[in-house]
């Protein structure tokens, strides 16, 4: 009798274990000579191979410090404190257990953000919020030091024990430098102020984390996964150096840091990125002579993947990103409302964003398995690949040095980071423009009759300009005391001196070029249209007519026509031209089979041209191209063409 443990799936023992060679042999039969690499092997933006099949694998575990549920984070970003409070209370009553305060001026506020220039206003925004029962986060912002000290003053005014609170104070001067292009003092002075603020807050009993390494600016500027992780490491190391230079013990400096990363719509790469982030940070800790400790990682769904057109598709994007963040090991998560690209989200959009997480937590139970991707060959390979690429990018940044400093500060000042991200951004934009990276509802399957969605009728935040009243040498404790006594924001502001300036990183969404085309078409006095001039019977032109209709709609051009004009095995050109004239369009696009183009394309193009049409053609009929051009076809549309450039010309032709 065998002593081997019984199989969990004993029926599998009846079948021989499949080998990779047998699988590859079966695949080759299906491919019928096609290139395996081109058909089945993908590449990430960093050039990582994405295989169709992986064996089981092992790798270092990427575990959170505290297993269990992640925090469901909601945004407090309405400019008016009373309105912000009402929204915040609804979020907390609806299941959120974390609030992210995004003050006016924060990049993540997208032009909105809480306007609170004194403790009284901040108190109104957080009225009824029991700070000792939730997690509280501050979004990095240009006046982040003042925002943090205002919050500390509110805690003192309410008589709360700072040690009992879970607050992330959001200091990120490098993130601010990246987004607005300047900080108010040289890096060495910024480091001194940062260390002084942290020491003052710790002295009052706050445990932090105090510094937020925020990769959202890099992501929105086009960073690949490896580049985002490299900027994360370089930023964190810059803070370690700055704090250590001010006399802070390296272990304390490490414990002051938390990360904010982005969850995008690529499930596999997002999961691998979050796992890689923990492993890479552990390597930095080891290089510093520290025993690795799991760092808090907050995750926000990607701004750059959101669309203004057909925004309900953003619900799917947010769900994929939230799932990936949960599986990847986020400690807290913000799902951007599906209307975020259109304006400040209302209660409904916020509720849907919150419930996306609650369904994943309560119904899918994603939190019950620690690092569920561990052991899966695909995830382990991508995680390791990202670790290697990210470390190489990180070393390139670290090699930078100049008058402004070393590492990330010098790389930003010299423009090295901006150039590297611009190359990745250009590649991503090209993939979107050619629709190799399709955007559902925008570049693919656009809906010209999409329904209206509601956002709050709120104007962008306007903050009163205040004259700095603080001296650079003023103790942060004195600023907090001034705030408690009723002083306003100016009491903590310090005038700029020898400001450090760089070229700021752009914040872009991938859908913007197509949205601009749709906006232009919608604003036209006469909306542009195109007539689909079909050749032959229905079965011959349906595929290309559908392709053309879909492409033109992505640029806001409604397509008319598309009916069959076949008669006795040929196209009735008189009927075709008549239908074109009735349509009122100026642009006509021939749609048919290659054989129809060869037999009837030239005659149809000539007839339509004589009727006043600008004639295009769907497809690339190589052998007939010269004859078609001579007959009047001026442009061709096909899979892989630059859709943005093509649609720009189409709008011009349709309006000529």
Question: How does the SSE layout of this entry go?
Answer:
Layout: H1 20-31, H2 36-40, E1 42-43, E2 49-50, E3 71-76, H3 81-93, E4 98-101, H4 119-125, E5 135-138, H5 144-158, E6 166-168, H6 173-180, E7 182-183, H7 187-203, E8 211-214, H8 216-220, H9 225-245, H10 250-255, E9 257-263, H11 267-287, E10 297-301, H12 313-328, E11 332-334, H13 347-363, H14 377-398, E12 401-402, E13 405-406, H15 408-414, H16 416-433, H17 476-484, E14 500-501, H18 512-523, E15 529-534, H19 538-554, E16 558-561, E17 566-567, E18 570-571, H20 573-583, E19 587-591, H21 594-610, E20 614-618, H22 625-631, E21 633-637, H23 643-655
Parallel strand pairs: 3-4, 3-11, 4-5, 5-6, 8-9, 9-10, 10-11, 15-16, 15-19, 19-20, 20-21
Antiparallel strand pairs: 1-2, 7-14, 12-13, 17-18
Helix pairs in contact: 3-4, 4-5, 5-17, 7-9, 9-11, 9-14, 11-12, 11-14, 12-13, 18-23, 20-21, 21-22
Describe the structure.
The chain has 656 residues and is α/β, with parallel strands linked by helices. It folds into two domains: 419 residues, Methylmalonyl-CoA mutase (TIM Barrel, Alpha-Beta Barrel), CATH 3.20.20; 144 residues, Cobalamin-binding domain (Rossmann fold, 3-Layer(aba) Sandwich). 45% of the residues lie in helices and 12% in strands. The chain is built from 23 helices and 21 strands. The strands form six sheets. Strands 6-5-4-3-11-10-9-8 form an eight-stranded parallel β-sheet. Strands 16-15-19-20-21 form a five-stranded parallel β-sheet, with helices on both faces. Strands 1-2 form a two-stranded antiparallel ribbon. Helix 12 crosses helix 13, helix 20 packs across helix 21 and helix 21 packs parallel to helix 22. The chain is globular, with a radius of gyration of 29 Å.
